[in-house]
Design a protein that fits this description.
About 40% of the residues lie in helices and about 25% in strands. It has about 280 residues and is an alpha+beta fold. Strands 1, 2, 3, 4, 5, 6, 7, 8 and 9 form a nine-stranded antiparallel beta sheet that branches. The chain is elongated, with a radius of gyration of 22 Å. The model has no long low-confidence stretch (mean pLDDT about 90).
């Protein structure tokens, strides 16, 4: 449960510095985490990105300030991180449904977005199919790209589409999606598409070999259409399995394994592999 405490410490830090120029890297460093791991867990457990949380909190407080004071709109805009009245008005109207000037009128209806407190409610009765597997070091033949936490949600699906469109999948099957979590102090992480290979396998153009370290892995079976099933399993890994398990996550590689077949079928099977160690 230590990482739940860390997430709440991160939210405390956000609240204390809400009017500052906050970056995900700064917040992650405050809790001694990689930016990648922090943002992934935050999004899985809250259903929003860190950026969305910060933006919603600022706009909520800006609305309160407009109706409770005579402060000018331009001053409120600058205070909450907007360089121009136009950009503030656009964001404010999208969030509250009315303009900042309208918000200053008596009787205006505004939206409130309160501070988060992350809690894990431990429940029984839900089945998760998993196994613990020890694997020695092995080699992956893959095509790789680098992403930031900010561009990965759009960039990784695009990478997969291009992998099949440009014929890469006919050279090396796209059986594995390998994510190498960023290390503290590094803004990018490496994401790879490929499959396992022998050490002496030839390396096609635009591909490279990756060495996956020897680890104990928790392997979670996912049955159902993509991408909903595997996304839901990721959320359950963090919200249900890890808090109650005798294992803890090793923040290094994690792997998604995709089998042949119709990935929209209710019977489609995929797997999540995460490296773990005993608590």
């Amino acid at each position: 449960m230590e990482w739940i405490k860390s997430l709440n410490n991160a939210i405390d830090y956000i609240e204390e510095n809400l009017l500052s120029d906050l970056s995900c890297q700064d917040i992650a460093e405050h809790i001694y985490s990689s930016s990648f791991h922090f943002q992934r867990v935050f999004s899985l457990l809250t259903g929003m990105t860190v950026g969305e949380y910060i933006r919603n909190r600022r706009l909520s407080l800006a609305g309160q300030e407009l109706i409770m004071s005579n402060t000018k709109v331009i001053n409120v805009a600058l205070k909450y991180g907007y360089n121009t009245p136009e950009s503030f008005t656009k964001a404010f109207s999208r969030f509250h449904g009315i303009t900042p000037n309208s918000a200053k009128k008596e009787g205006s209806n505004l939206k409130s977005f309160n501070r988060l407190l992350i809690k894990i409610e431990l429940k029984g009765g839900n089945i998760m199919d998993y196994k613990i597997v020890k694997r020695q070091e092995y080699t992956i033949l893959a095509k790789t790209r680098y992403f930031t936490a900010e561009n990965s949600a759009e960039g990784i699906p695009k990478f997969w589409s291009e992998y099949y469109e440009d014929g890469s999948s006919e050279i090396v099957c796209g059986m594995l999606g390998i994510c190498e979590q960023e290390k503290t102090g590094c803004k990018e992480f490496r994401y790879s598409i490929g499959c396992e290979c022998s050490n002496d396998a030839e390396i096609p153009a635009d591909f490279e070999k990756l060495t996956i370290p020897a680890y104990t892995w928790a392997v979670f079976k996912c049955v159902g259409p993509m991408p909903h099933t595997i996304q839901n399993t990721w959320k359950r890994v963090y919200s249900e399995w890890l808090p109650q398990s005798e294992y803890e996550l090793i923040p290094d590689y994690d792997i998604e394994l995709y089998t042949d077949g119709n990935n929209q079928s209710k019977d489609y099977v995929s797997e999540i592999w995460i490296p773990v160690k005993k608590k």
